[in-house]
Amino acid sequence: MSSDPNRSRSDFPLLPLKNVVVFPRTLVTLMVGRNRSMRALEEAVARERRLVVATQRTVQADDPVADDIYEIGTLVEINQVQRQADGTLQVGVEGLRRVRIERYTETEPFFTAQIADLPEKAGYGPAVEALMRHLVDLFARYAALNTKVPADAVETVRAVRHPGYLADLLAAHVVPDPHERQAVLAQMDQAERLEHVGTVLTTELDVLELDQRIRNKVRQSIDKNQREFYLREQLKAIHDELSGESGNEITELREKLLAKGLPDEILARMQKELTRLERMPAMSPEATVARTYVDWILAVPWNTRTEDCNDVRVAELVLNEDHYGLDKIKERILEYLAVRQLTVAAAQGVEGADPASAAARRRLLKGALLCFVGPPGVGKTSLGQSIARAMNRKFVRISLGGVHDESEIRGHRRTYVGALPGRIIHAMKQVGVNNPVILLDEVDKLTADQRGDPAAALLEVLDPEQNWNFVDHYLDAPYDLSEVLFILTANSLYDIPRALRDRLEVVALSGYTEDEKVQIARRYLLARQLQAHGLAPGFVEIPDKMLRLLIRTHTREAGVRDLERKLATICRKAARRMVEGRTTRVRVTAHLLEEFLGVARYLADPEITPGQVGMALGLAWTEHGGELLPVEVATMPGRGGLTLTGRLGEVMQESAQAALSYIRSRATDLHVDPDFKEKIDIHIHLPEGAIPKDGPSAGITLATALISALLKRPVRHDTAMTGEITLGGRVLPIGGLKEKVLAAHRVGMKRVIAPRENKPDLEEIPRNVRREIEFLWVDSMDQVLVAVFPDGVPVPLEPVSVEAPPLQNGLVAVNGNAPALETPAAQSPTPQPAM
Predict the structure, then answer these.
(1) CA 806 → CA 302, 670, 755, distances in Å?
(2) Do 113 and 147 reside in the same domain of the chain?
(3) Is 389 left (phi over 0), alpha (psi -120 to 50) or beta?
(4) What is the 3-state secondary structure (H, E, C) of 772-783?
(5) Which of 181, 377, 529, 810 is placed for a possible disulfide with 561 were both Cys, Cβ 3.0 to 4.6 Å?
């Protein structure tokens, strides 16, 4: 815009400013970027290089109107204009005098205002002179504390003799707030302006001196190697200075420790630990370790506990509600809880807090450590949960499978990086009470290596004489575990270390019978899977007949886990049909069962093939339940070689050698060539060679298969057997009879040969299984041969001395209907295979 010669000299372009106040007699550099402001600047340069600058009332107004601008401004002279790379203008101006905006003559394309000069009221006099000297001294102190003040600013201020100019110059250096600066600019009385600036300068000086004291305090609390923590310590010092008290997290931690009710010894140690933590820099690695340790002490329950429910009747209801069958197991648990109810009452009657009284209470509360041993899926873990629910205690499970480091139990010492407490203390923190039920699952899967034996560390945890003073390496303080009820589970008792096994009371859980599986599926599994798949109760209907068919043709296990998986598959298929609108209810039939689960994996009624020469059926026990163990023997011309295949363990190989020696010693009586060992090679094979097999209970099976192969005569195909053999032909007792009989029942065996000394174990076998299987109790191998060869032995054997009068060459048959009576096998009613 060109200059207009008719425009009044009091009419100047106006430049609104954000957060900037220009005082008279001061040099200021401005950055101009708004279009309207750049137009006003161009107009001022084209005229007399003068314009009015005034501060906006609000910073947010990018396109201000007249009401957004203060009325008091400054007339400035433009000294220098430079265009920047981004298109903005850098302008150097010098303030001339204060002016008042009388009115705005134009607002577009830029502001033009008519102004009036504001005369300053005189401010000379002794009082003003004294005030000026005082302000100069204050500014000198301010400049010494504030590093942002230029070095020559103090000398410039000292040289000023005009009170108004001194006030403006100090305001430019000292007053930080733009609205406060605007108030100084609007003050026409020079003396009052000096007093106003003096008040602001005094306040700012107090803030700087306070900041300096904080800096000195922080500098004294940290050494030269910890300067990087300055800011955090400064915040702490600021907090202390403002509040007048410590008020930090250390105080809160002390209060929490006092409220925790820790033992006196541990409380004293923690007070020392907090004192050390308080003196450490907050970001120091040692401070992090110490703080984590204090947090663990606070997180572990020391005195918090739940109120026990020792009512045996309530426990019985809970156990019956959660589990079907397991009568003997439930009875043992109820006995345990009954004894605990009496001992708790007796312990509460022991008065006194002395060590002798505490030891007496611990002796009264000392109880058996229950260990549930059985195949997978029979309910060991859920029994622990039921016990916790019956006792109104919290439950936590610790899996010990694969644990091979002692520190997993005892924890790591704090000297190690990343140290943490052991699993026991972790469990206590998780439940938040000091009397939970802790289930130590899969204790037989513990292993030891160069880092220690975790089973040995468990000895202190489980021993009631020691665990009241259990010391975790991380906590490094005695912790009372005597209130904890420990329950252990395992699949194999023999894999538990002997020292640990000696402290346990073993409660054996065997596999379920078919009837029990049907009831479990009906009462628990199907309902749980319907709920898990979002199906209404009764949407999937499975008759008992179909459940039995499912169990027989698609599962073969001791527990019910695979059965539950099959039921889950049925529920998924049914859910899809419902979503697709194909059905509103599913009733499972044999055809639908095959459609949902595919072709049957097992025969519903296994066909018992005719007897084969050199083959006998044994019974084996595994941690997954009982299994059928076929033994095959082949003979061929040779020089007496003996080959054993099928991954036989050392004990089973020795049983094969013993069986062979027995046959050679009785070769004449068995019509076997006495020199057969020098003329033929013998190969003994146990199918499913990928599975390791061991144990002595296959002795009579190996001997029977060898005799069958040497005599070229088949063995009865409906008979399974188990028993250890000696060189003299005696049959010794074995373990796991119940599991073995259930395995024989699953595959449809009609007869089971077992050692006579295992006859008391017959009571553990379910009644329906006893009715369907004929049990033959034997003392010697001769009695086994009478029972397994359909046409009898080749020649009459000499009578063998037995505990009861021998019948049929010493053979004793017991039918499941009358297990206490001994009757000849020929008189026993023919049992039917399991349906």
Answers:
(1) 67, 20, 15
(2) no
(3) alpha
(4) HCEEEEECEHHH
(5) 377
Same domain for 286 and 421, yes or no, is no
DSSP 345-385: HHHHT----SHHHHHHHHHHH---EEEEE--TTSSHHHHHH
Smallest CA-to-CA distance from 754 within 773, 770, 775, 735 is with 775
**Residue 567 structural domain:** 514-597
List the CATH number of the domain containing 803.
3.30.230.10
Residue 812 forms beta bridges with which residues?
777
573 counts as catalytic: no
Amino acid present at 176 = P
> What is the Cα–Cα distance from 626 to 378, expressed in whole angstroms?
13
697 belongs to the catalytic site: yes
C-alpha to C-alpha distance for 390 and 341, rounded to whole angstroms: 13
Q: Which long-range contacts (CB under 8 A, 24 or more apart) does 417-423 make?
A: 419/289, 419/474, 420/474, 421/296, 421/472, 421/474, 421/475, 422/457, 422/472, 422/473, 422/474, 423/398
Is 5 within a domain? no
Buried-state track 264-278, b at ≥16 Cβ within 10 A, e below 16:
eebeeebeebbeebb
Q: For residue 357, tell me if it sits in a domain.
A: yes
> Per the residue annotation, which of 236, 517, 677, 740 is the catalytic one?
740
Nearest-angstrom CA–CA distance, 723 and 700 = 6
- Closest by CA to 72, choosing from 152, 168, 215, 137, is 168
According to DSSP, the residues that pair with 117 across neighbouring strands are 99
Longest pairwise C-alpha distance within the chain: 152
> Does the structure show a pLDDT above 60 at 390?
yes
Give the residue from 575, 615, 835, 814 showing the smallest Cα distance to 713: 615
Q: Are 52 and 73 in contact (CB under 8 A)?
A: yes
Residue where a domain terminates, one of 482, 508, 534: 508
Q: Which of 386, 697, 708, 780 is catalytic?
A: 697
**For residue 86, which phi and psi values (nearest 5 degrees)?**
-90, 10
Residues 291 and 318 in one domain: no
What is the distance between the alpha carbons of residues 466 and 456, in angstroms, rounded to a whole number?
13
Q: What is the pLDDT of residue 505?
A: 87
Beta-carbon count within 10 A of 357 CB: 13
- Look at residue 381 and tell me if it is in a domain: yes
pLDDT per position as a tens digit, 179-219:
888 888 888 888 888 888 888 888 888 888 888 888 777 66
Please tell me whether residue 504 adopts helix, strand or coil conformation: strand
Are residues 445 and 404 part of one domain?
yes
Position of tokens 């997180």? 299
Number of domains in the chain: 6
| Token pair for 668 | 């004449």
**Omega prior to 13 cis, within 30 of 0:** no
- Per the CB < 8 A criterion, the answer to whether 395 and 385 are in contact is yes
Name the nearest CA neighbour of 723 among 737, 712, 709. 737
Pair of tokens at residue 162: 């005009």
Q: pTM of the full predicted structure? A: 0.59
How many helices and strands, by DSSP H and E, does the chain display? 29, 25
Q: Which two tokens stand for residue 311?
A: 């009512």
- Would the pLDDT of 99 be above 70? yes
Say how far apart CA 538 and CA 312 lie, in whole Å.
34
CA dihedral 663, 667, 672, 676 (to 10 degrees): 70
**Are 43 and 113 members of one domain?**
yes
Question: Can you tell me whether residue 106 is helix, strand or coil?
Answer: strand
Alpha helices in 582-696 (DSSP H): 590-597, 650-665, 676-679
What distance in Å separates the CA atoms of residue 713 and residue 793, rounded to the nearest whole number?
A: 10
Helix (H) or strand (E) holding 212: helix 190-221
pLDDT digits (tens, 9 = 90+) for 299-334: 899 888 888 887 888 888 988 888 887 888 888 888
Which two three-digit tokens encode residue 530? 């319907």
3-class secondary structure, 283: coil
Final residue belonging to a domain, choices 215, 231, 264: 215
